[in-house]
From TrEMBL:
This is Glutamine synthetase. GO terms for biological process: biogenic amine catabolic process; biogenic amine metabolic process; glutamine biosynthetic process. SUPFAM superfamilies: Glutamine synthetase, N-terminal domain, Glutamine synthetase/guanido kinase. Residues 120-456 form the GS catalytic domain. One of its GO terms (molecular function) is glutamine synthetase activity. It comes from Ciceribacter ferrooxidans. Its cofactor is Mg(2+). Pfam families: Gln-synt_C. The keyword Ligase applies. InterPro entries: Gln_synt_N_sf, Gln_synth/guanido_kin_cat_dom, Gln_synth_cat_dom. Keywords: ATP-binding, Ligase, Nucleotide-binding. Belongs to the glutamine synthetase family.
Length: 456
């Protein structure tokens, strides 16, 4: 799905002085935008064809550490270059940054110009292509939640992230008066995204003080992942420009609700006109294709969890009674289940994966979901009966892995993901997960010190 802003539009804007900067970005393993700010004249002259970046950008952690143990990159190999090839269909203006446009780049091998297999965008494109070969197209939408703070990022950091001041003092779920107080930021986010060719549906207050949600129109999987990555960056930049801070940490505070990124998904015909999940004669309007797809999601739920919850903190969100799921089961319009059937008996029928947190990488999450769904379709897996009732209290049902360590082992041992993504890709992200665990295991937390300083 292309944006309405074309390369010819950019050239005209550059010639007439409206655009002077072009951000050429790739999406890293954490889902962040990394790249360069080009003088616009140089971009339209030559850099629109390609530019380069260090290959460590797809082998670092949150701190940009050069992590050991990766096959693709290392000190021994010298940390060479990747080629960044702008996908001009993603070109757009970024109204919240003066005189600036942005384009997402595919990441290519510097020598062969083949796509780098462990690049998040390449991973999703491979699964999209598998669906295309089956005559199918995935449409998805992500509901992205975050917390808004009255401090700046610098102030929060200098305080040691203590005594943070939320934008509101009480639960603001659907609360119009409270969200009116936050309109300076939220209106700027909605208008900014709309101006960047990302069609916004709404924003709303969420389930805790200072918690927000932004919703944009569904799109094909790759376009939605592109939108998601840009949305997160835009929200931070817009908040920063107004002296505020936003966090997409999945669980920023023990007493607050977690922040999710629910992923709605459905399959359609290749032309996008016929809903393949809908059968007016099926139970709840579900087609056999949908049932097989959902059965695949459930059969491989543990294996794909790492791509929905990639950090230690991600697993702190899975708490009973918080609207975050703890069980990998499906249910009809039931927010206690990990997978919820929405839009029953309509052409808009879809499955909502409620497992993912706001810290996920959208390309990896969508790719893993599609791969699991394809496996269900190919093997014609039978969908288990829908769960009814409060899933939090359910016994002897499939649980979401409770720790990153458990999810990593499920990823490591996944024959399905190794077949779908490739051994090298799975091993690359297993190493990322291992490093995250290693870093955490050797750190001393405030909780440990407070609990044992005197009493140990």
């Amino acid at each position: 799905m292309s944006t309405s802003y074309t390369f010819d539009d950019l050239k005209m804007d550059v010639a007439e002085g409206r655009i002077d900067t072009v951000l050429a970005v790739l999406v890293d393993m954490q889902g962040r935008l990394m790249g360069k700010r080009f003088q616009a004249e140089f971009f339209v002259e030559s850099a629109y064809k390609e530019t380069h970046s260090c290959n460590y950008l797809l082998a670092t952690d949150m701190e940009m550490e050069t992590v050991s143990g990766y096959k693709a990159t290392s000190w021994e190999k010298g940390y060479g270059d990747y080629t960044m090839k702008p996908d001009l269909s993603t070109l757009r203006k970024t109204p919240w940054l003066e005189g600036t446009a942005l384009v997402i780049c595919d990441v290519l091998d510097h020598h062969t110009h083949a796509e780098v297999p462990h690049s998040p965008r390449a991973i999703l494109k491979k699964q999209v292509q598998r669906l295309e070969a089956m005559g199918m197209k995935a449409f998805m939408a992500t509901e992205l939640e975050f917390f808004l703070f009255d401090q700046t990022y610098d102030d929060a950091r200098m305080s040691g992230y203590r005594d943070l001041q939320l934008a509101s003092g009480y639960n603001e779920d659907y609360h119009i008066f409270q969200t009116t107080k936050e309109e300076d930021v939220m209106r700027a986010i909605r208008k900014g995204l709309q101006g960047a060719d990302i069609p916004v549906e709404n924003s709303k207050g969420e389930a805790s003080a200072g918690q927000e949600e932004i919703n944009v129109r569904y799109a094909d999987a790759l376009s939605m992942a592109d939108r998601h990555a840009i949305i997160k960056n835009a929200c931070k930049e817009i908040a920063w420009s107004r002296g505020k801070a936003i966090t997409f940490l999945a669980k920023w505070n023990y007493s607050a609700a977690g922040s999710s990124s629910h992923i709605h998904q459905s399959l359609w015909s290749a032309d996008g006109k016929t809903p393949l999940f809908f059968d007016e004669n099926g139970e709840h309007g579900m087609s056999s294709t949908m049932k097989h797809y959902m059965a695949g999601l459930l059969a491989h739920a543990s294996e794909i969890t790492y791509f929905l919850a990639p950090y230690i903190n991600s697993y702190k969100r899975f708490m009973a009674g918080t609207f975050a799921p703890t069980k990998a089961i499906w249910s009809k319009d039931n927010r206690t289940a990990g997978y919820r059937l929405c839009g029953e008996d309509t052409k808009g029928i879809r499955v909502e994966c409620r497992v993912g947190g706001s810290d996920l990488n959208p390309y990896l999450a969508m790719a893993a979901l599609i791969a699991a769904g394809i496996d269900g379709i190919e093997k014609k897996l039978e969908l288990e009966p829908a769960f009814v009732g409060d899933a939090y209290g359910a016994r002897e049902v499939r649980e979401i892995p409770r720790t990153l360590r458990a999810a990593t082992e499920s990823l490591r041992n996944s024959a399905m993901l190794r077949a779908a993504l490739g051994d090298d890709v799975v091993d690359h992200y297993v190493r990322a997960a291992e490093w995250e665990q290693e870093e955490y295991d050797r750190r001393i937390t405030d909780w440990e010190v407070a609990r044992g300083f005197e009493r140990a």
